[in-house]
TrEMBL record:
Domain PTS EIIA type-4: from-to ranges: 1-127
Lineage, opening ranks: Bacteria, Pseudomonadati, Bacteroidota, Flavobacteriia, Flavobacteriales
Organism annotation: Flavobacterium album
Record flagged with keyword Transferase: yes
Entry keywords, A to Z: Transferase
UniProt-recorded name of the protein: PTS EIIA type-4 domain-containing protein
InterPro entries on file: PTS_EIIA_man-typ, PTS_EIIA_man-typ_sf
Length: 127
């Protein structure tokens, strides 16, 4: 399998979690013999661990993707400081603040496409 994106790792983790839940529901809905219940429970635990690992990998991938954006955000912050010190146009101040909010929402949503779009929007607002 090729390298996973953060979004793909997140989706896989969601699927693994769902499959573990389905297996758990099966275990609890059926009166399984002890040995079989223990075996399927062990397998369910392994699936949960794999889902956790995928969630961790997704977070690492997101962090790696964001690293490049952090440098740009630092530059924007410096530009904002000088822009706000000389700003006369109130609408521009509002636009910059709204762009910062959009970037924050994109980062919190872990949406790399929207992070990129928001950075571009913020760069345009500050310029």
């Amino acid at each position: 399998m090729a390298n996973l994106t953060a979004q793909q790792a997140q989706k896989l983790a969601n699927h693994f979690s769902a499959m573990a839940e389905i297996i758990g529901n099966y275990r609890y809905s059926n009166n399984l013999p002890h040995n079989e219940d223990m075996e399927i429970g062990r397998l369910q635990e392994l699936i949960i661990e794999q889902a956790d690992d995928l969630y961790t990998n997704a977070a690492i991938l997101i962090f790696n993707d964001v690293q490049g954006a952090l440098n740009t955000i630092q530059t924007i912050t410096e530009q904002m400081e000088s822009t706000y010190n000389t700003l006369i146009n109130i609408q521009k101040a509002i636009n910059i603040a709204a762009s910062v909010v959009n970037l924050g929402m994109a980062i919190l949503a872990r949406d790399m496409n929207e992070i990129s779009n928001s950075i571009d929007e913020l760069l345009e607002s500050v310029s």
